[in-house]
Amino acid sequence: MAGKLVIIMANSGPGTGIELGPPLYQAATAAAMDYEVEVICTAGASRLMKKGVAETLTLSDASERTVYEFIKDARAAGVVFYCCVPNLHAFDMTEADLIPECAGLMGGARLIEELMESDCRVLSY
After folding, report:
1. pTM for this model (two decimals)
2. What is the pLDDT of residues 11-52, one digit of tens each?
3. Are 57 and 67 spatial neighbours (Cβ–Cβ below 8 Å)?
4. Which of 15, 71, 85, 107 lies most in the core, judged by the most C-beta atoms within 10 Å?
5. CA R_g for the chain
6. Which one is the CATH code of 4-124: 2.60.40.10, 1.10.3720.10, 3.55.10.10, 3.40.1260.10?
7. Cα(68)–Cα(85) distance, integer angstroms
């Protein structure tokens, strides 16, 4: 692997439409370039990891592809998605509610430890 990229999606969520495209596209592009890529969905973005949510969203009225299709493409390219632990409770979700493309949960301590102890780059949205 060439290196690691961590994308933190916090302010890009179901209500932000077109703003969902760049982090998902950049994640898939970096994975295709042989970088290790993790996308951490926290705050409003954690709702994208809930079954049935991303399937109903598009980037814009002109877009025919759903946000879920972009997530599946990124996962197929090698991107690993995580949902932030506290947001399960905030949005009345359980692990069973997560889409299959979500690798599981990541808490704040694990995220901070990973960022501080590894040589990675971080993008946040």
Report:
1. 0.91
2. 877 878 888 999 999 999 999 999 999 999 999 999 999 999
3. yes
4. 71
5. 14
6. 3.40.1260.10
7. 21
